[in-house]
Amino acid sequence: MSTELLIIGLLTLGQAQAGPEAGQPEAIDRSLSENCAGCHLEVYEEWRRSEHARAYINPVDRRVEMTDGFRKEDCVPCHAPRPVFEHGLGPASRVVARETNRFEGVDCLTCHWIPDGVAASRPGLRGACNPIYRRELVSTDLCAPCHNQHNTIDEWERSPAGLRGENCNGCHMPVVTRGPDSRDLRDSRDSSGRSRTGRFHGPTGGLVPAMLKSAVRLAVEVEQAESDQVLRVTVTNSGAAHNLPTDAKHRALDLVVTLLDREGRIVGAPVDEGEGQRGGSRRLRFRNPYRTEPDLENTQIPAGETRSLELPLPLETVRSAEIRLLYKRTPMVPDEEALVVEARSISF
Question: Which residue among 34, 99, 102, 153 is the one 20 to 30 A from 191 at the CA level?
Answer without folding.
Answer: 34
